[in-house]
Fold these 2 entries.
Entry 1:
Amino acid sequence: MKNIILLLFVIFSSCSQKIDVSKIDFINGYWQIQKVEDANGNEKEYKINEFYDYFEVKKNIGFHKKVQWQPTNKFLVNDAQDNLKIIPKDDKVFLEFYSQFGKHKDELILLSKNEMILESKEKVKFYYDKVIINTNK
């Protein structure tokens, strides 16, 4: 019985991944949302999405904005954006978004060169894939 408890502990502790703050620059660039999962496990997938999330962060301060890709390899961009602060706290990393319209904080659950997962305080998870865009045509 002790071995089973130990095994379960190892499995569950390995599932929670600590964010390496030294690699926070992976957040920079274009991301496309793939799905959203609510607190009950219900999922909504986004198979086609013409909007991208653009993040730019330097020294834990930056911004986030929505951009719309055009077939001319250009983006439609407006002045609306959220300022962004990266907040490491108690082995977790939070992204604090703020603008003139309000603020909110999401936990960064996963960040790699190709994937990102954010979780809201309501336990809604946002799954993103990195998008490499060639605008040199």
Note: The helical segments are 2-15.
Entry 2:
Amino acid sequence: MSTALKQALAGDYQFCHLLKIQFDWGPIYMTDADEDISYGGNIYLAGMLKSFSSVKHSSGIRIGDLKLNFNALDSAVVALGLGEKWMNRRVELSKLIITDAPVGALSLYKGLISKMDMNSSGTMSFTVSSIWADFEKSAGRQTNTASHQKFFPNTDPFEHTPFLTDSVPWGKEGDGTVKSRSAKSSFEAPRNKRNNNQQQEP
């Protein structure tokens, strides 16, 4: 910590928060101040970052989460949540100390984005987890829509689920017709498949 920053913290000062999110194409800078902030050669944009959950510091190794809330009425925020690959993007949150001018910044939190939420009240949220979260994360893909669409974003993995029976007998040869208790109609195999099955019968 610099001498100027120590002197500022010992007296009267103002502060705001600075947020940096690193994407493939470059970083984006935001602030919760009322106007844009110029610091460290970068412009931190106001009006996007609304608030964040409390930050707790510990001397031990902990898996702590930080929730960042953004103004979803801003089209740029919506583009970040819906148009960018935000998973595991590096996030840095700091506290900028200001007297007559910005004096220095205190690092508050560093982590990786692990979740995104958007609600009807005009708020989009990123959940940021510490780097230790990766050590307890389940490896591999999971059987759910979110896990599937990380790799194939424009497909529905359960599109044909209503056409399946409640249980599938593995290894048992079927007749080419899949019936369902919940679907209104049954799904039949393609014509060439049915013809091949019929030709093989004695």
Note: The longest helix spans residues 191-200.
